[in-house]
Every structure is written in C-alpha cells, then in structure tokens.
Amino acid sequence: MRSGRILAGLATLAVVVAGCGGGDDDAAASTAAASASGPTGTVTVFAAASLTDVFTDLGQRLEEEHDGLTVQFNFAGSSALATQLTQGAPADVFASANGTQMAVVTDAGLAEGEPAVFTANVLQIAVPAGNPAGVTGLADFGREDLTVAVCAPDVPCGAASADVFAAAGVTPRPDTLEEDVRAALTKVELGEVDAALVYTTDVVAAGDAVEGIAVPEAEDAVNDYPLCTLAAAPNPEGARAFVDLVRSEEGQQALGAAGFRAP
Amino acid sequence: MRRERTPAPLLVPAALAVAFLVLPLAGLLVRTPWSQLGTLLTAPGVGQALRLSVVSATLATLVSVVLGVPLAWVLARSRARGRAVLRALVTVPLVLPPVVGGVALFLVLGRQGIVGSWLAETTGITIPFTTAAVVIAETFVAMPFLVISVEGALRGADVRFEDAAATLGADRWTTFRRVTLPLVAPGVAAGAVLCWARALGEFGATITFAGNFPGTTQTMPLAVYLALQRDPQAAIVLSLVLLVVSVATLLLLRDRWLGRGAAA
Amino acid sequence: MTLAAHVVVRRGPLTVDVALDVADGEVLAVLGPNGAGKSTLLRVLAGLLPPDGGRVAVDGRPWDDVDAGVRLPAHRRPLGMVFQDHLLFPHLSVLDNVAFGPRTRGASRAAAREAAAAWLDRVGLADLGARRPGQLSGGQAQRAALARALVGDPALLLLDEPLSALDARTRLAVRAELRRHLAEFGGSTVLVTHDPVDATALADRVLVVEDGAVVQAGTPADVARHPRTDYVARLVGLSLLPGTGEGLAVRLAGGGVVAVAEPAAGPVLVAIRPESVALYPSRPGGSPRNAWPARVAGATPHGSTVRCELDGEVPLLADVTATAFAELGLAPGSPVWAVVKASEVTVYAR
C-alpha cells in the first residue's frame, strides 16, 4: 500500500491505477488528478466517546477539503479503545480522554512520537431541566435525601470526580456509581436522579433536557485529552492531516463550541 | 447395546460448535493471572457482588416462575383472541437491547415513571437504585426464556391427561396443579435454569435501571465491566468466578432435578 | 341410574346425531368404523365436549341441555372413564392414580388411599400400587385404569376402546375381567368399540353408528342375525358358541362337536364368521370334519349377499351370494348342510 501511494505522487495516472493494489483504485485515481499533493485514502481515528460530535464534524470538513480522503471513526470508551489497539486493531490516530489510557498505548510502543494534549474537559453538575431538587453545588452530593449519581472510581470521570470532591471537602453519598458519563447523563435526562457530576461537554450535548451548574473546585481536576498518531498507521499522511486540523484554530473553535476548553 | 456412530454431517458442525463455544473460555483460562488469584479473589467487594448476583438471579427466577408459568399456560392453552400478539409482546425483551429495556423500566417504574411516580407519591417508595430494581431488571430480561420454554413443554404435553383428570373430578386449577404442572416439570426446570443463567449474566438493564452501587446493586457482571476499565486481569478473574459458580450450580441442579425429570 | 341422551354435535363435515338410553346395570356398546363419531359421542357424555344440541340426563338430572342452557362441567359429573391407552398419570404411583378421583372429590388422603387399595385388590394389582404406570404391562395398566374409573362408584361408566391397545393374548384376559366387573357394576355403561367381539362379549345391547347416525340397534344376536347394512353385516354376525375344549375338538354346550385346528382345553368360546360357512343342499363328499344339518330359519339380503340364519344342533349365521342363494333354491324352512373348515374356526378361552 505504502509503495502504491508513493507511486501515486510520482508517476502518471496510468501507473497509479496499475500500482495501487487496494480497494480505492478509482478514488485514488480521481484524487491524484484533483489534488496531486493532498492526503488520500482512508484515515481511521480511534477517539473517546465524548469527542463523537466534534470529531465527526471535523472529519467531514477534512473530507471536503481533500477530495478522495475518507475519515472513519471508532468512538468508544478510552480504555476499550486502548485494549483494541494493544490487540492489534489497525488505526491511524488515537485520541484518549485521559493520560492513563494513552499511557497504555505509548507503553506498548504503538505511538508515533510523543502524544500531545489537544483539549481539556472539566466537570460540571448536571441537573434535570428546572433543577427540581434545587441543587446549588457540590455540597448537595452529600445530602441523604437526594438521589445523585457519580461516575464509578474505575472509570476516568470517576477518578476526576473523586479529586474534585476531595478538593471541596465533600463526602458524596451517591446512589449509583455510573459506568460512564453518558449513563449518568441519561438518568439526569429521565429525571431519575437529582444531580450527577459529569463533563461540561456532556451537559452541552444533552441540550435543553439538562442544566449545568459550574463547579469552582473542578478547576483543580481538569481532564486533559492527549492525541497521537500511531506508529503502524496505514495512512500516516492522512493521520497527520487530521491531527493538524484538530490542533488548528478551526479545530479548537469547534471543540470550544462543544464545551471543551483549551489545554 | 451397540450405539451407531454419529453421522459426519452432524459430527463436524457439532465439533465446530463446541470449539466456537469453548475456545473463548479457554482464552480466559490462558490469560488468568493464577499467581495473583488469591489477592484478586479476596479483594473487598468480590464476595459481596457474587452473593448479590446469586441472590438476585435466584429471586428473579422465582418471580419468573410464579408469573411466567401461568403466562405460558395462557399462551399454550387459552383460546383467547390476540394470543399471537401476546406472544410477540412477551418476546420483546429478548430482542430489545437490555440498556433500552432499562430505560423502558425507568419510564414505567422510575420515580418519574407512570407507575413509579404514583408509587412514590402514595407510599414514598422509589424503586430505582435498590436491590429490588436489580431483581426487576433481571426478571424483565430473563422471564421470556422461561415463558417460551414452558410454553413449548405445555404444547408438547398430551392434553388427554387433562381430560382424564377432568373425568376424575378435577377442575382446571386442580388439573393444572396436580397433572399438568408435574407433567411439564422438566420443561419448567429447563426454563428456570435458562432464566437463572440469563439473570446471572444480566448487565445492560441492571446498570441502567438499578444503577451500580457495591452491596445494593453491583452484581458480578457490573463489577466485571468496571474492573475491565481499570484492571483487565482482575476482570478475567471475576469472570472466571462467575463462570465457575454458574457452571457448578447448573451441574448440581442437573443431577438432582433435570436428571430425574428427564427420566420420567 | 339411567342414562338418557340425545346428542347432536358437529365435528367438521360430520354431524353426530345419536339418541341412546342405558338402564341401570346395562352395558350399551356403540359400534362403528373409525371416524363414525363414536368417541365424539363419548366425549360429549363425559362433558369434555359441549354438544351443539340435545340433552344428556342421568337419573333424570340434566347434565347437558342445550335448549335450557344447562351444562355440567366434566369434573362435576359422577362418572368414570377408561381410555384406549389407559392415560394413567406417569408422575403418580398406581395407588395415587386410583386415589386421584376420591381425593379431588373431597375424600381425605387416608380414605382415598384405602378405597384405591381395595379397588387395586379387586383388579388383582394389590402388590403393584407403589409402582409407576411405566412399570406396568399393558394389561396391568388397563386394569389399573379400570380401577381408577370405578373407584368412586360412578353413575356412568364410559369405556373408550378399552381393549384395542392390548395385544391379542392380553386382550382375552382383560376382556374376561372387564366382563366380570361390568356384571357387578350397578350403573350404566357405554362402551365404544370397533371390535364386534368386544361388543358381543361385553354388551347387553349394541348401537351401530355410521357417519354420525344410528344405523341399527338391538341385542348383539339381533343385530348379527339381521344386519341392515353391509357394514353391519361385515362387522357383526360372528357366531359365538360356548363349549369345552378337548384337544382338536370342542364339545359345544348346546350339543354337537366342532373340529378345530389348534388344540383347546377347558371352557372356551368357538367363533365362526358367516362368510366361512358354506351351504350345500345335501351332505357334501370328501367327508369334511365340520358338517352339520340345519334348516334356514331366516334370510336377510344385504348388498349382493344374503345372510342366512341357520337353525339346528349348531346354530350359525351364513353369508352366501345372492346367485348361490337362488341356485340352491333356498327359502325359509329349506334343509341344508352347513360346512366349515377347521382352520376357519377361532377358539377363545372363556
């Protein structure tokens, strides 16, 4: 494949068609005609589930920019993605919601160079629309009479939550330890819990069903999102293009609109 | 008695099926960190989650038998209209993604739900995030297995025994209790085992509707899932424990219960 | 205890419309081919199937009365029923099977078991009460089923092909025993069968049913002598003669000796089918072993054959073709010789 792509940059159209062994012959051929130097083929991005909306949007922009480039995503929990990568899943880019799972990948020698933090997420209190229980701050998580959800300590948002509660000096009395932020948010949306500690981006994504209450103590536990290209990337050129877009002004604006903040 | 050899068209796919079912299990065994087994097993919460799993799966099975056997009877014996629709509805939990099932339970039994809000207002009881919610979620997902199994047994049973009972003075309830139910006992047992196994492994509906809290709602599958986020090796050990307990229980029951039923 | 019933019931294309009366202690056999509606009739009497019309009453009490809207459910009817393949409950012991009826009808466990044990003793199964039905032979199981049907002293006993699932040898023994119990039974009995031997041996009266309707009724002998349809003629007409076996001969109780092919001993029944009786105007040559002089007492044509009732030392029924009947110049009162091959004679233990 790689030799096929190098040929595509150097040789005539006919040679490209003959030399490219993959399934993208036609796409590669037309791309070579349209933009002779841009990335082509398929870029595979493994990204944390919280990035679903922003990354899907950015992927479409990149595809529009480069004719013949296809960006495909695998959105899941960072740990699930890390497991898939260490088990040999083919990917070009990995964007993790925390440093721990990125470390799993870098420790396995799968990353190309050093991962870079590209954005950050901060915890917020989510309450059902109208805030029926009158939640005002972290202290309400210690109240016996409220039904509250926090992330399980085993998952990244739970670890961050624990730091925030410690910083605030609050002992939470959760009714459930959620397996991920989305599950916690679903229970807020349904009005089955009075409050949950989730990420700002999730509150933004949930729209009108959920209201966010900022938590000053959360500033001590900002969650950084690292990103890297993979050493075994089948499409290193496409991988670089995607990473560049994410880190560009345009990418950072999109992230900001979704509730992320600059690193 | 000389047994005929199993014909190859059956033997080959059967062997493939065994390999398909057993190899992932072998994979688990290969990856089990045997040296850390003791530490991981005695970790706090493991016994608690296991106990909660077994207790709630057993309660869910009991509820399923009490409600599901009569339902199976209605499906198999009554001539009421709309039975086909009823049967289709009963199997809905089988095809519904369990997480969706959990949300559906919220919509009915949650504190904002149709029944749940009334219950909360009149009695102050809220169901979600309690052990009762675990049992309800497991029952919702597992009962169809029992119903379908028992309905099949009832359809296969010879209804003339019920005629014979009627000529001996037994009304339909007595006939059901003293004739029909004993005749389909092997089917009920098989259904209960399926139901129990499904309840024991239930994850999606439980974590959605009952949440996850050690001691009250964290069953083994939930513990396994969360362990997988943190320490995959611990998750393997927990899976293994769940597997050993379920297989041991099923083998024990098979000898005591199914074995006799199958011989009858 | 008297059964009076007129049952109308539709089953697909077949309409069963049968009236019957059975007196106390009387056994009525309903005889007919498969699909004639016999079992349907019995299921209506048992209350297992609602009739579309008519009335069923026992001792004047209505069990079914379609016009009056009366319907007594099966479990409220004081009856006993024996099914073709016994239908003993496989999960209960033989004793508990027999005790099942008394228990559901309100007897204490002890009383029910006592009554059941007494009946098991009466049918000769006293030692087998603890067994499961699966451990009984066919004959034992059918005897247990009879005990189960009779234990509550029912007003009506319904027997649905009670012997047809048994092998020939067992059948003889169970038939003889059934005959004894029916003689002792004080209620009305309806026996459904397609076997004329069962009907002849067990019933006081026979009702022949074809296509849902009664084609003939009467005592077994009446029906045999005067068959109204081909079916009845083929079905009944067997001459059953009591006698004593003496090796290859049976000395008949009414006089005369019948040569038989298989050695027989003790009290037996000799059965001769009408089509195996040949008629000759004079004693035939070749000295056949069974040749008896007789007189034609009656002749009933059915189809292309004529059934002749023969009077003589050995009373028989004979079927001859209408042509032969004419050629022989037979008429009531004509003297004839009746000849039967020994191999055509069947012998039953009595």
From TrEMBL, chain A:
Provenance organism: Geodermatophilus tzadiensis
UniProt cross-references to PANTHER family, sorted A to Z: MOLYBDATE-BINDING PERIPLASMIC PROTEIN, SULFATE-BINDING PROTEIN
UniProt entry tagged with the keyword Membrane: no
Keywords attached to this entry: Metal-binding, Molybdenum, Signal
Matching Pfam families: SBP_bac_11
Keyword Metal-binding: yes
SUPFAM superfamilies reported for this sequence: Periplasmic binding protein-like II
Domain of life according to the entry: Bacteria
Family of this protein: Belongs to the bacterial solute-binding protein ModA family.
GO biological process, one term: molybdate ion transport
Gene Ontology MF term list: metal ion binding; molybdate ion binding
UniProt name for this protein: Molybdate transport system substrate-binding protein
Residues binding molybdate: 50, 78, 181, 199
UniProtKB/TrEMBL annotation, chain B:
Family of the protein in this entry: Belongs to the binding-protein-dependent transport system permease family. CysTW subfamily.
PANTHER family referenced in this protein's UniProt entry, alphabetically: MOLYBDENUM TRANSPORT SYSTEM PERMEASE PROTEIN MODB (PTHR30183)
GO terms for cellular component: plasma membrane
Job description of the protein: Part of the binding-protein-dependent transport system for molybdenum; probably responsible for the translocation of the substrate across the membrane.
Principal cellular location given in the protein's record: membrane
Transmembrane segments: 52-76, 88-109, 129-150, 179-199, 234-253
Keyword field: Cell membrane, Membrane, Molybdenum, Transmembrane, Transmembrane helix, Transport
Official protein name in the record: Molybdenum transport system permease
GO molecular function: molybdate ion transmembrane transporter activity
Domain of life, per lineage: Bacteria
Membrane topology per record: Multi-pass membrane protein
Compartments, as annotated in UniProt: Cell membrane
A Pfam family that the UniProt record links to this protein: BPD_transp_1
UniProt domain ABC transmembrane type-1: residue ranges: 50-253
From TrEMBL, chain C:
Segments forming domain Mop: 285-349
SUPFAM superfamilies cross-referenced by the UniProt entry: MOP-like, P-loop containing nucleoside triphosphate hydrolases
Record-linked InterPro entries: AAA+_ATPase, ABC_SmlMolc_Importer, ABC_transporter-like_ATP-bd, ABC_transporter-like_CS, Mo/tungstate-bd_C_term_dom, Mop_domain, P-loop_NTPase, Transp-assoc_OB_typ1
Residue ranges of every copy of the ABC transporter domain listed in the record: 2-236
GO biological process: molybdate ion transport
GO terms assigned for molecular function: ATP binding; ATP hydrolysis activity
Pfam families in alphabetical order: ABC_tran (PF00005), TOBE (PF03459)
Top-level division of the source organism's lineage: Bacteria
Presence of keyword Cell cycle: no
Keywords assigned: ATP-binding, Molybdenum, Nucleotide-binding, Transport
Keyword Transport attributed: yes
PANTHER family assigned to the protein according to its UniProt record, in alphabetical order: SPERMIDINE/PUTRESCINE IMPORT ATP-BINDING PROTEIN POTA (PTHR42781), SPERMIDINE_PUTRESCINE IMPORT ATP-BINDING PROTEIN POTA (PTHR42781:SF4)
Name this polypeptide is given: Molybdate transport system ATP-binding protein
Originating species: Geodermatophilus tzadiensis
